[in-house]
Every structure is written in C-alpha cells, then in structure tokens.
Design a protein that fits this description.
61% helix, mainly alpha, single chain
Length: 118
C-alpha cells in the first residue's frame, strides 16, 4: 500500500508526538479541509481534539492518512472502496503499520547517518 515508490515525494515524518492539521496537510500533500472530510468518511481516523476543538494528529494518524491518500489518489479507489479496503484489512493493519513505521525509521536513521558522516 504505502510503498516507498508511491510516496517518495512526501516528506519524512518528524519525530514528534502530535501534529497540527496544517503540519499533517503538508506532510501528506492534502488540504486541511480534505483531512476534515476524511475524518467523517473514515471511522479509523480520529485525531485527538483539545482546546477549542483543535485537532492533534499522532504518527499513526499520519500513516493512515498517507495510506488513504495512496488508495484514493494513486490506486484510484473511490471513498467507499477505500473505506471497504481499510475495513477489510483490519487484521493486516497492524502488520502494515509496523512495516511503515520500520520503513520510516530506516529513512530517518539513514538521514541521521548522512548528517553524522559530514
């Protein structure tokens, strides 16, 4: 789903605990209103809401948004089809997210190694 080839143009996810909607929009290359819409359409996407209904996304939310983006924009799924695909992959979700986290960590470690070699 979220292969390196599909999202190679997307920036690396920083090692923060929480992200604002603007930060997530930049990290996933979608507009904030699209993220709010996807929250209504995909029950798995539930950012933490604090002070004045502000949204704070966690790393797993960003990975899920990138997965949704890939399904809709790269693979051509409809909203309903993407929702079905995500629902049907409930058992696979943990494995996929673990692979994505490992890939992301490897990329971050490679970047760090490059910086240290300089």
């Amino acid at each position: 789903m979220l292969e390196a080839g599909n999202n190679s143009e997307l920036p690396v996810i920083p090692g923060k605990r929480y992200f604002t909607i603007g930060e997530v929009a930049e990290l996933c290359d979608v507009k904030p209103h699209v993220l709010r819409y996807w929250e209504q359409e995909f029950p798995q996407l539930k950012p933490v809401k604090r002070r004045g209904n502000r949204r704070y996304y966690q790393r797993h939310d960003v990975l899920l948004i990138r997965q949704i983006r890939s399904l809709l924009y790269d693979e051509g799924f409809t909203i309903g089809g993407a929702r079905q695909r995500l629902d049907g992959e409930g058992a696979k979700d943990d494995a996929i997210q673990s692979q994505q986290i490992i890939r992301q960590t490897l990329l971050e470690l490679e970047d760090l190694l490059t910086l240290l070699k300089r």
